[in-house]
């Protein structure tokens, strides 16, 4: 059996579902890969079903998400390529730190614990959740205007509205609040990794220059935390917003990500 990875696992972020990867799934399947798009526990339905009943998000925790993703990856016959977008990027980093994956690419990734860079645009993007501590126990959605600022600020309005209708769901307020508090509490919390782990698989950060919610400074700060000898690289794509997997020109980024992951897979 070849050691080359034959499976790609795509992990979505907050305020969207696996549907946000729909173009990448077809693109990679056409190249002969098996593609998995696991969702978070309790969100197995389509966007419309989740919006009709977002209550599972009210009690969702990061450990639950990580445990579910671990089950998916651990069941594979050989290590896959793992790609994560936004919060999915942080979950991807945790999986890598725990020994899973042949290589990984994270796109506009949320930071792991200890990354304290918080640009104004990130604060503005997450303010709808963080402005009220009661949101820690709620599923919190974006209005179109909030979504457009955080996700699609470089898109034309017609496209942005269509993607909002097709992809947007509420986010788990508890996980977002816990990620903020993690840097204030002693000891490792839910999204902590060992930045000195030399056994971790290679990791590429892909960053959109115009991303508001996870700007390039966050990606760079996350990457430089890794101090081990394992490969960690950052690549910036000019003109791209947060919803990079659905932005015009996504094919080029998908190909760059796959090429890098295959070249560095172990």
From TrEMBL:
Bilayer-crossing regions: none
InterPro entries: AB_hydrolase_1 (IPR000073), AB_hydrolase_fold (IPR029058)
Record SUPFAM superfamilies: alpha/beta-Hydrolases (SSF53474)
Coiled coil segments of this chain: none
Pfam family, one: Abhydrolase_6
Residue span, AB hydrolase-1 domain: 8-255
Protein name: Pimeloyl-ACP methyl ester carboxylesterase
Native source species: Micromonospora ureilytica
Lineage: Bacteria, Bacillati, Actinomycetota, Actinomycetes, Micromonosporales
